[in-house]
Amino acid sequence: MSLTGMKKHVGVLEQAGLVSTEKVGRVRTCKLGLRRLEEEAAWIERYRQLWDARFDELDKVVDELKRKEKTDGRKKRA
Amino acid sequence: MDARREREPTSVKNRTTVERKSERELVVTRTFNGPARIVFEAWTKPELLKRWWAPKSTGVSLLSCEADVRVGGRYRFVFGHDASKPMAFHGRYIEVTPYSRLVWTNDESDDGAVTTVTFEEKGEKTLLVMHELYPSKEALDGAIAGMEGGMGETFEQLDELLVALDANVGRS
């Protein structure tokens, strides 16, 4: 994409409130201007998915320890 | 009990919830189908911790996992896509109450949270509540803004948007 094309795109995004830009010297920095709450909700959902994935694995460890405890218990009684 | 399981007829998978309770607090909850003693063990023995802390689906692997779970003991988890760019998380355990409560600090920066995990046995299940308390609102906001992987996804969305806009501009 050409620089002019890029400028046009960023301009459209900025007008739509999706990004905000700041020019310092020759450099224009572009920041996502998504509403904070939406951004936070999306992050929380990603964080939930991370823990959910961890806990699915933890379920397996718990199941295994439960089974092991049962077997060991049986051995002790025997 | 059966009504609760209706959504997942084939399994008894428990739901994970995450909520920002306040400007400085995040709370994660999950129920496990086992006694608190066993769930606690899985959080406090490094050889068990490493089996679940970095699930494959996250794309990040646990390069090393040390956890000396006793009051004042330290932990250090090193993550990475490969060994060349490792990311370490470390801190200290400040409270260890067998089968019911674990508290640790996150010492990577001054903005690290203090994490409290409680294990509450209910019948044959255990309700786990993980509470993360950040030192300030800014610290939690910062964690939310800068989480690994987050920006990558955001930029992908921006790419898609640019393509969509390009198509629109072309048409008009």
Outline the structure in words.
The complex is a heterodimer of chains A (78) and B (172). Chain A has 78 residues and is of the alpha+beta class. Chain A has 2 helices and 2 strands; from the N terminus they run αββα. In chain A, strands 1-2 form a two-stranded antiparallel ribbon. In chain A, a hairpin with a 2-residue loop joins strand 1 and strand 2 (27-32). The termini of chain A are far apart. Mean pLDDT of chain B is 85; it is low at 148-152. The longest helix of chain B has 22 residues, at 150-171. Chain B has helices at 2-5, 36-44, 46-52, 137-146, 150-171; strands at residues 17-22, 25-32, 61-67, 74-80, 87-97, 101-105, 114-122, 125-133. An 8-stranded antiparallel beta sheet of chain B has the order 1-2-8-7-6-5-4-3. Chain B has 5 helices and 8 strands. With 172 residues, chain B is an alpha+beta fold. In chain B, a hairpin with a 3-residue loop joins strand 5 and strand 6 (101-105). The A-B interface holds A 8-9, 12-13, 18-19, 32, 39-40, 43-48, 50-63, 65-66, 69 and B 13-14, 16-20, 26, 28, 30, 32-34, 38-39, 41-42, 48, 51-55, 57-58, 130, 144-145, 147, 149-150, 153-154, 158, 161-162, 165-166, 169.
Quaternary status: heterodimer
Q: In order across it, which strands form the biggest sheet of chain B?
A: 1-2-8-7-6-5-4-3
Low-confidence parts of chain B: 148-152
Shape of chain B: globular
Percent of sequence in beta strands of chain A: 15-25%
CA radius of gyration of chain A: 26 Å
Quick recap:
The complex is a heterodimer of chains A (78) and B (172). With 78 residues, chain A is of the alpha+beta class.
Produce the secondary structure layout:
The complex is a heterodimer of chains A (78) and B (172).
Chain A: H1 3-15, E1 19-24, E2 27-32, H2 36-77
Antiparallel strand pairs in A: 1-2
Chain B: H1 2-5, E1 17-22, E2 25-32, H2 36-44, H3 46-52, E3 61-67, E4 74-80, E5 87-97, E6 101-105, E7 114-122, E8 125-133, H4 137-146, H5 150-171
Antiparallel strand pairs in B: 1-2, 2-8, 3-4, 4-5, 5-6, 6-7, 7-8
